[in-house]
Amino acid sequence: xxxxxxxxxxxYDAVIALMQQTPGVSIRDADSREAVGRYLLRNPDLSFVAxxxxxxxxxxxxxxxxxxxxxQHLVVLPAYRRQGIASSLVQRCTEALRAHGIEKFHVDVLKxxxxxxxxxxxxxxxxxxxxxxxxxxxxxxANA
Length: 144
Description:
Layout: E1 2-6, H1 12-20, H2 33-42, E2 48-52, E3 55-64, E4 69-76, H3 85-99, E5 105-107, H4 114-122
Parallel strand pairs: 4-5
Antiparallel strand pairs: 1-2, 2-3, 3-4
């Protein structure tokens, strides 16, 4: 039986292990335990994990800036894909964000992660071609 529940900082090691096992997922310094703790504190009950018994099989993180919602790190282990788990995780996030008054959501996908791009398009998400995202890293740390 698959269960979904809000992610806690106590889930950190299992979630990072899921990300490390998933091709195309980039883990940055911003994914440190401390940074994820701040994120979860700032965005309570907006990130979720999927479990089969006691085993972590999926996760997603989400948050908002007061106007827009941002989904990150959607992962489902290959053996559990095509069972609706990813869609359930995304739905949990969007419902939770809507409860905060957020009606538009964004997700960033690395250009090298074709399977992720295919997933989001198949779910009805639209690739934006009218904007470019620019980043600035004061420390110069390319892995920030």
